[in-house]
Prior knowledge:
The chain is α/β, with parallel strands linked by helices. It contains 13 helices and 12 strands.
Amino acid sequence: MTPLHRYKQELDLCRQTFAAIDLRKEQGYLVKFTTFSANLQNLLPTIPRSKHESLFRELLLQQVFTSFDQVFLDAGELVKFKGCADEMLRPNGARIYCTYHLGSYRLLTSLLFRRGVDCVLLVGSNMNRQQGDGLHEHIEGLRRQYGLTNSFRIVETGQPSAVMTLLRELKAGRSLIVYVDGSPETAPKPGEEAQFLPVQLGDREVFTRKGVGYLSHLSGATIVPVVSYRKPNLTNVVECMEPIVPSTHTDRETFCAETMQRLYDGFSPYLNRYPGQWEGWNFVHDFLKPEVPPRVMQRLRRGSDNAPVRVLNRPVFNEDRYSLCDLEDAPVLFDRHCYETYEISPDLRDLLLNLGEVDSVEDTVGPELFGELVAKEILC
Length: 380
């Protein structure tokens, strides 16, 4: 049996096992799906809501595949290269490889190490705790199987000396591997927004760290954008986009801003093509630049804070903006735009689900609550 045949056979078994799981009964499924759906709607609103759950299931399956690829040492031999990947993933001095949590994203580290590149992987502390041991086992497996002597090191983003450490590694000729789209623990905390750059991704602006552009400009290292994705026939593709060479004629801040937007612009077409393969849907809301909902903005511009609530003859539940979730403690309303959660009573939950059976919502809930439901656009 060839490695390719064995690989696809194993993935088919993963798929069959996954298909047998009733995901809706899994703890936390509804909350995770609701967050995924809200993120998808905010960034890629052209994708119908009816497709969100199938894309979420696809993402969960892709995560299973990605974990298997780290165990299957021959997975790197089965990758198809596109763009200038075959050339750019070989030892040739220090580079900064910028990638994303798309497809089998861990394969880049494996591919670079197998080709003799001295690698420094930049990750958050939580990711290091959860995946670090597995990564080191994978690297040691490759080292034994292929007789490799090049170096591999993990550096945590949260370390105070991380920037100086990375600069020393670059100066020593070692290459960095950076996940441009971040991770939950690297998102801006309240008051830290000035340390991040806003860049456009889909229909929203997201915050991103400046470190990649800063390190490139300071060290002179070329940035190599790399994207991974899995084709329908289960073939992993690794594609390199056009390298970004730092210019001494551009000041550092300008270079950082232009570079980070360029990295997200390059990623955007792949996100549109393979939305069910991006793990970032699970945490991108932590990076979203706050935005006032359009209709709320219109009311603020009119200065209508004290204006009377508009009359709704037959109000309906605003499903475009809100989701109803039944948690263990109580039902909640989730604001898909502002990512706020409101605990509600079971009676109000039942009412919102059955508005068509009520003659007068205002008479049922009272003028005060009715006004609040309309003001928050829960009813429209």
